[in-house]
Amino acid sequence: MKSTPPSSLSKDRLRLWLKLLKTSSAIEAELRRRLRDQFGSTLPRFDVMSALARSPEGLKMSEISTLLKVSNGNVTGIVERLVEDGHALRLAVPGDRRANRVKLTAAGSKAFAELAAEHEGWINEMLGEFGPEQIETLSDLLEAVLHPAEKDEKSGSAANAE
Amino acid sequence: MKSTPPSSLSKDRLRLWLKLLKTSSAIEAELRRRLRDQFGSTLPRFDVMSALARSPEGLKMSEISTLLKVSNGNVTGIVERLVEDGHALRLAVPGDRRANRVKLTAAGSKAFAELAAEHEGWINEMLGEFGPEQIETLSDLLEAVLHPAEKDEKSGSAANAE
DNA sequence: GGAATATATTTCAAGCTTAAAATTTTAGGT
DNA sequence: ACCTAAAATTTTAAGCTTGAAATATATTCC
User: Of A3, A145, A156, B56, which residue is most buried, by most CB within 10 angstroms?
Assistant: First the structure.
């Protein structure tokens, strides 16, 4: 039943958003479940470890929260648990006694490497249908949502990631 | 030919997922912020009210949690606050003293109608660039993520290298 | 130096979320 | 009736998340 009223562009956009949310949530829920069941871990922990893994010299609390776009207080708790688990440690910052530098321990690095490999496999599995062309099409459309262009722009491709 | 490594389909899928998550999270965060700042409400409350608004006769707790795909205990708390606010009320289910039927109050219906109108406007604004063709393309691609058509493994193309 | 301001971080209160355990009530089987 | 299993819901414990208030330290400006 195609009961779509003619001029409901607005409703169509609303439906699109709901589908986008549903898709993202479904994948996210599956990742959380697997991290939990197979590794006793969580997505927030994974995200923090991921950020730390890219900076072997460590990151300040505020750098972590900026990178992950979450609040400072949030990071405090996650790092706290990471430290308890022996996956991270806090170092003093010479010259600034307010700040901390957080760094993965050897155990943390090792654990993250395993997690990351599995994680990539899971995503690869969940998006298994997508070939290069579809990936680019979807990526470009999402980019358009994220960064609306003011005027029509004939872009070839080549937006870069961060 | 950008410097994309040859066999990184797997990495490309990973990047795609990251972008999907980023896009969805950005919109969601904006919605939460506006619900909070302009209406003193939250997305979970909005979701529950939305479900209730579609069933004027009310819904059982378990029906709400099934519809929204969240846990029972979760719904308990949200409905609790909705009732405190005078937006919902609980009715007995004749013949089953275990169950509750939750229903929007008149005030709740009115409040939701306003919220819903604003909400649609926000989405329409955030997805303002998208016309019917783009909506359909994006919708179809998301559908493919959500419900992969499992065809036989036919392609021998890309076993990925790592 | 000392006051005001800015920065880095934690603490707090409130709400969301889940899985698992507990409660209450209903339904079945004997 | 009695016993057991199933169903609807709440409670609990733990963790995530935020914005705002609180701490502690650093910097800037007279």
Answer: A145
